[in-house]
Amino acid sequence: MFLQLIVKKLSELGERGAIRLISNILSRGDVAVGIGDDCAAFEFGEEYLLVTTDMISQKTHIPKEMTPFQLGWFIVAINLSDIAAKGGAPLGLVLSFGLPKETTESFLKELTKGADSCATTFDTTIVGGDMKETDIVTICGTAFGVVKKEKFMPRIGSRPGDIIAVTGTLGKAGAGYYNLKNKTLDSDLSKPLLEPTPKLKEGKLLARQKCVTSCMDISDGLSSSLYQLQELNNVGFEIDLDNIPISPELIQLQSEQSGLDIYDIALHFGGDYELLVTIPTHKFEKAKGALKKNDTDIIAIGEVTIKKEIIINDGRVKKTLENKGYEHFTNHAF
Amino acid sequence: MFLQLIVKKLSELGERGAIRLISNILSRGDVAVGIGDDCAAFEFGEEYLLVTTDMISQKTHIPKEMTPFQLGWFIVAINLSDIAAKGGAPLGLVLSFGLPKETTESFLKELTKGADSCATTFDTTIVGGDMKETDIVTICGTAFGVVKKEKFMPRIGSRPGDIIAVTGTLGKAGAGYYNLKNKTLDSDLSKPLLEPTPKLKEGKLLARQKCVTSCMDISDGLSSSLYQLQELNNVGFEIDLDNIPISPELIQLQSEQSGLDIYDIALHFGGDYELLVTIPTHKFEKAKGALKKNDTDIIAIGEVTIKKEIIINDGRVKKTLENKGYEHFTNHAF
Question: Is B329 on the interface with A (CB under 8 A)?
Fold first, then answer.
């Protein structure tokens, strides 16, 4: 008879398992919205103060083709995307740079310029930071912003019958990835992957309409995001495959690379940083109109259902959508 | 004739050189207090919103004797110390864990418990975070808090004639370090190094007095902090060696380890997380009284001078204080 010690590793636990573990340990405070949403939200008079943090490391998140400028842009963009998903306006960011000793001055300059460029492009500023020596490049960003309480777009609130929509085309980042991987190199094709655009404008316009019942960004890929939203909302989704807006970059790449499954990429590949929103049917057209008036759009891709399943309908067959999203510790996109 | 390429490395630039470089690149925004202070500060009605971030990595900041619980405590404590240095009350923190794949579930549990324990001890909460795979343990924390505008304690503002003081004894962390290094192991001796106490209570009491002309925490060591304060304020300091409050832990260790230079440790070793404050002479006793009434203290260690030098006076000889503080990339405490 032996005593068996079962020591679970993070590689078995997965990121979401680990986050559940953390969430069960942490004490609850005066926070209005906490762990499990894109941002934490604190009451601050008539507003919520939004806070979000994201870390990236060379180990899993930084393709070798990413320039230091793009790396700086990226860490700011992905944090601003979380502010966008709550309908917020960014107040500022702090950044921590974990860098190896042999990092060059020019790397640091370009990294900083990229971060500053993304921040100023979206009318915000980097207000402070920290720098430490690490073995591999590891960058952490924290963004904070504000949103009027009545405009806040939570993750929880979608109702059966709501339309589910995205703020732009899907598969842009995936196209960028396969472009790099297969070295068919058209550098413009990889830009959406390496220099994503946080959908702050779309987030703010949607928040102003007060029509959104739930919202999150789809950084982990559409299918993964749908499964996260389903779990939180205790609903289901029926997605119309024909309505998935495939990015022009992915269509271009398909014409150059045979064997590329564009629907697989659009449905499952992460890194697009679009917003995924649910909106009651009767408010949808008005919301879409408001976005169109501002040279942007939302595209309906399906409906929220009572049945707690995620169904993909290709016009002939309905089947369960696979949950193939990227998960750290168990699976690496790069 | 050869073209010489001089590629400077961070190891030559040093942390402060690198921070100057970053600071010169970043655009200025609507921030009231930005890079170069313990926290960034934003106007928020009658208050400032304070934000600070700190990263630690196994490479330089995590001694092998530190338990995962202590690691969690540490990242929260050092961020709260920056809020304390501005007289603020913490609102919350976000944490990012960069962890190797082989990290165990029990490590993650203890890490989280330590972070939660420090946060709740100081009446605040961890409201969110991120987790990514890295080669070595790298943890990033961001704390945010608030302080009434008129109570904010900036780094800039000290005037010749002001008293310069610290909120507690020095050399605690140094004693902890030499205790670990020389394995004379009295585990209580290393606690101040591994589980530091952010001086939030002292910061708030001092802020309430509205007597502080400048303040920072002395995480980098007293001499390094004095040189930073001197540069910002364009003043000098004369420090009385006899008034340096040596920590009881350091005195105890001295009795056990021969050859320990306790003044060298108290003046130069980092990690004490006390506050370093300047206060006009006529307000000093009232401020000290207010702290004493609340079972704490500030100890005068010298005076702000017109002459832009940092002098250490041992009662017989006055000489320039060396600037031997810990600097990342050029020198490692661990």
Answer: yes
